[in-house]
Specification:
151 residues; 3 helices; transmembrane helix; 96% helix; rod-shaped; mainly alpha; transmembrane; General stress protein; 0% strand; membrane
């Protein structure tokens, strides 16, 4: 069950990265200079594609082998990049989970301290009220003693 949830989270993360890249790429094309550079690069790519097409016609097997090697290398590099991003994500996630646990523990301690302070305040108020009653009683007895002495 947990493995399925982890796969879903990884999938959501990769979808988020992809969507972010597409949105970022689209946003950069709003700039005129960037569009010009993209046009120039596309022209360069077009020339490279034309050259590759003629190489395929002249040496199909060699070109295929070369492209397969490049594709495997690119896939390896991409896998390493994805693994690195996943490690960074996992590390950040672990740190966040640890921080959340620490905040929760601190919050629980704060709540407990507030409860103790509340109880201590009630106890102090009760003591003050008892002392007040004792003082009233002592004052009353002192008055009686004064009255007795005045007779």
């Amino acid at each position: 069950m947990q493995a399925t949830q982890e796969k879903q989270e990884k999938s959501l993360f990769l979808k988020g990265v992809t969507i972010g890249a597409v949105v970022g790429g689209t946003a950069t094309l709003l700039n005129k200079d960037t569009r010009q550079k993209v046009k120039q690069n596309l022209s360069s790519v077009k020339g490279t594609v034309s050259k590759t097409t003629s190489n395929v016609k002249e040496n199909p097997r060699e070109t295929k082998d070369d492209l397969m090697t490049k594709a495997k290398n690119a896939a390896g590099v991409l896998k390493e990049a994805v693994d690195s991003v996943q490690k960074i994500y996992d590390k950040a996630n672990d740190e966040i989970v640890d921080d959340v646990k620490e905040v929760k523990k601190d919050s629980e301690m704060a709540v407990q301290s507030v409860k103790e302070i509340k109880q201590d305040s009630k106890d102090a108020l009760n003591t003050v009220n008892e002392t007040k009653q004792d003082l009233k009683s002592a004052g009353s007895k002192a008055k009686q003693a004064k009255d007795e002495l005045a007779k």
